[in-house]
Amino acid sequence: MREKQQPKTSGGDGGLSVASLWTEVNRCGQNGDYTRALKALTKILHENRDDVTALHCKIVCLVQNGSFKEALNVMNTHSKVLGSEVVFEKAYCEYRLNRVESALKTIEGAPEQTDKLKELYGQVLYRLERYDDCKSVYTDLIRNSQDEYEEERKTNLAAVVAAMSQWEKAPLEDLGLPESTYELCYNAACALIGQGQLTEAFNKLRQAEELCRVSLADDSDVTEEDIESELAVIHSQMAYVTQLQGRTDEALQLYNQVIKLKPSDVGLLAVTANNIITINKDQNVFDSKKKVKLTNAEGVEYKLAKKQLQAIDFNKALLAMYTNQADQCRKLSSSLQSQNPGHPRPVLIQVAQLCREKQHSRAIELLQQFSDQHPESASGIKLTMAQLYLIQGHVTKACDVLRSIEEFKHKSGMVSALVTMYSHEEDIDSAIDIFKQAIGHYQSEQPGSAAHLALVREAANFKLKYGRKKEAISDLEQLWKQNTNDIHTLAQLISAYSLVDTDKAKSLSKHLPSADTMSFNVDVDELENSHGATYVRKKAAKVTGENLPKEQGQGEIKKKKKKKKGKLPKNYDPKATPDPERWLPMRERTYYRGKKKGKKKEQIGKGTQGATAGASAELDASKTASSPPTSPRPGSASGSSAAPSSNVVPPRQQKPAASGATRKKAPQKKKKGGKGGW
């Protein structure tokens, strides 16, 4: 039988015993000096590498120092020795290393579900977006535990409710959660946003902001910058609510304030930058290209929900389209389609890019292909397809596509659009058929409803407009039976029956009110003189004895206006004879000799560039005594009549520009901000 060995001294500098090393570990653990504790534990494990307590303590120290990968390696290396002692630590390390699926398996495989494992289980379920299961875990923890972490559990539960409201559109459930802290108040505001209650959500965010300032103001170590950094997430959410309310300028200002703070939360920065891009749209694309870099930060995919990441990817593809990066847009949209095969938005982005390239036929083929493969998501796709057909002028094809959308087939807007398009194509029969199908649908589903009667009225008016009185009879009868006091409908019905059945028209005319009941006490003269009258009858002038002489020309003669004397010129001389050509323009008078030219003007050359006055005079053939012939005579020298070569001024050649003379000024690069960037 082997004897139990005594503790050996370590080979360290001081020759310390294992007991003293454990004392050192205990002291460092209480002081939070985990790095020093690790050194002592390394010495202990050097003596006994399978010491379970030392291994466990080492794992805890590594976790406290954030060395999760190293801690996981220790657990995997000594898995046989440790067993189930470190299930929580292993699951926690996997969770912090973003191996969420592995953490879930580790927790579910634990022999016992302790409270701390349940807490971690709730966090893992939240990251996996299994909100219903997560809510059950936190509800159970709050009900069965009483300690100082109750407020944190309620905050987490409020976050789960908010996520269900925003991403799953689940109705709000009153769980009796307080709003005593700014975190709880903020989560309540997020839940209201998911329900579309924007005004209430904004007020709740204001309340959260006040609670945050009050709670942090009590701490003397917290600076104003720390408070603003903590408030960044609240301000970003306030900007989002403001953006949804249509106040984009205010929202943009708040978003930029958050970006300037450079918060450490990469998820917050990514969401804020994405929302700025959505405000910019196809404007200010250079700013959007800077902001999109913030959405590519490391670790963003672990901070945001799947729908948030999906929205950011969609906006990246749209930004590539707006910046004319066609290949990049196609690449991103194709990647999105492979990740979300049933989602229509990637296909719509590809179609938009094809339309920018004037490839409408290819775009329609792509839409038709998606519609055939995913009929459950085909409504919006078919509307786009119809729009493209209309752009190409194929109205009938657009109508066929719209009629194939069962979801909107009998909606009043769809009926109106189809009737308008068929009328444009002069296909009245098809338009009437649209009315017939829609009326039949409402007759079976909602008989006598306002929508039903409105359709019947429009159908009757349409048929009467295009001369289909016989077909309008049934619609008019239905309308009149609903309201027998409607004289206008009765008159239309009588008019329609007059072409088909005169006896029926006569019998119906008995229901018309008498002429006496329809007469109104109206002053015709007052009506004609009213402001809205378009024609006023002229009254005949009364003929009396007084105005007869005036008509015969014996009345008073109109006073003649006195002619004013014309103004004479200042230098007028009555003795002098006026110029007989004074009424003619100066240029047309016989004595006009033109304007006198000054000496300076005569010196200005009118020849080639650089020619002097003397040279131009010599070259002017009209001023020479005998002009030479315009062409040389046979046998004469070709250059005998030419001017002296010294007086000829050759055309001036432009010097070649320097290599950089025609370059445009290079745009100055803007200074980039810090770690700032939809």
Automatic annotation (TrEMBL):
Gene Ontology cellular component terms for the protein in this record: endoplasmic reticulum; signal recognition particle, endoplasmic reticulum targeting
TPR repeat intervals: 232-265
Biased composition (Basic residues): 558-568, 662-678
Protein location: Cytoplasm; Endoplasmic reticulum
Bias (Basic and acidic residues) ranges: 570-591
Region (Disordered) residue spans: 538-678
Gene Ontology BP terms: SRP-dependent cotranslational protein targeting to membrane
Keywords recorded for this protein, A-Z: Cytoplasm, Endoplasmic reticulum, Repeat, Ribonucleoprotein, Signal recognition particle, TPR repeat
Top-level division of the source organism's lineage: Eukaryota
Keyword Lipoprotein: no
Residue ranges of every copy of the Signal recognition particle SRP72 subunit RNA-binding domain listed in the record: 537-594
GO MF terms, alphabetically ordered: 7S RNA binding; ribosome binding
Regions of compositional bias (Low complexity) in chain numbering: 622-646
The UniProt record lists the keyword Repeat: yes
Function, as annotated: Component of the signal recognition particle (SRP) complex, a ribonucleoprotein complex that mediates the cotranslational targeting of secretory and membrane proteins to the endoplasmic reticulum (ER).
Membership in a protein family: Belongs to the SRP72 family.
Name by which UniProt lists this protein: Signal recognition particle subunit SRP72
UniProt organism field: Seriola dumerili (Greater amberjack)
Taxonomic path: Eukaryota, Metazoa, Chordata, Craniata, Vertebrata
